[in-house]
Specification:
Elements (H helix, E strand, L loop, with lengths): L4 H4 L2 H5 L28 E11 L5 E10 L11 E3 L2 E7 L5 E6 L1 E2 L5 E2 L10 E10 L2 E15 L4 E13 L11 E7 L4 E10 L2 E8 L8 E7 L13 E3 L5 E3 L17 E6 L4 E7 L15 E7 L10 E5 L5 H7 L3 E8 L8 E10 L7 H10 L7 E6 L7
Antiparallel strand pairs: 1-2, 2-3, 2-4, 4-5, 6-7, 8-9, 9-10, 10-11, 12-13, 13-14, 14-15, 15-16, 17-18, 18-19, 19-20, 21-22, 22-23
Length: 397
Amino acid sequence: MRLGARTRHVIAGVLIILATTSCSTFAPTSTVPCTPHFPYAEGWLGADGGYSVPLEDGRSIWLFSDTFVGDPGQRSRENSEIIHNSIGLSRCADNGRWSIDYAWGHSDRGEPEAFFHQNDATGYWWLFDGFEHQGAFYVGLLRIEPSEPRGPLQLSFRNTGLDLARIENYHADPEQWQYEVLPLTDSEIALPGSTLVVDDGFLYLFSFFDRDDENRNRMLARLPLSALAENNPGDSLETWAVDRRWIAGFKPKQARVMMDDNATEMSVRYFDAIEAWVAVYSDLDSAMPESVATRVGEVRLRTAPRLEGPWSDPRSIYRIPELEGNYAERIDPNVFCYAAKEHPQYATEDRLILTYVCNLMTRSSDDPWDILKRLATKMDLYRPQVVVVPVPEFGFD
């Protein structure tokens, strides 16, 4: 593959994007109209992340992180480039036909680069959810810097905080978008953005911890929407504290753990049918490739009467087939899956639409370049996988 020096420090990010009870299985239902899918087209050759933000005009903006891109018409990742983020703009036609157009940036020399990119040569952004507010579109930009290998997984990057991109001309062609960057946090302990929820005058930010023990439990912060008009909106952040009250500032060390399992990405939305909030995610502990034969990868669901909780115990709503014993070994012994979330704009009364991503993870004895070369040839990996599942029976009727 054609990998320049600017991309070498993110190999761990492409391969290990982690910084991404009884088990009941729900089988996918048959294909339904306007179910998302992510073809290799326009030179877009796969990515992870896969947050979707429904717009008021019926379209959805998709937010991807590390992305393989090549020439138009290319179907293989051989001789492709890696950029740090890309976007997609999807539509559902009247006949139920799904379509998506991808977009990323280009340098002055015409080389592909991230859609949202920093001007310096070292830092970059991964895209963590978004929302519309008062005629603007906002995207969570997880700030990443290269680092010495750290933690049990020897990650060669570190999170340094979250910014927000504000785009006011987002109804134009993405090539014409202009964005302003608003700094939000500088914390390396906890990262807002695993999902963003707008409710009752506030932006709620579910935040995951980034610690060397790789245990990414989640806390909750919030921002008054009025603060988005300020130059430094992060000054108005509040934290849901251990003693169950909102305190001023973004203070991870004083935060209450909302969900004690291990996940970075998720979705949270309000279900009118049960008058409760519903969180969907995949637990990373079950996705590690250390013991493929014994692990069970699952997509989990929790409910809560309020965003502040209390959140119910997790319930499995889908078993990830790529992580099932012998199947996982046939795909690749290093396969792992993550980034599960729900996309409510495609849901009905009896179905949910979920996505997750499968990738390859290096272990301490692996050469990361060998793993990356394998990923370049395994085109069934490293793009959002779409699953249609029935709405769980508990508490929904």
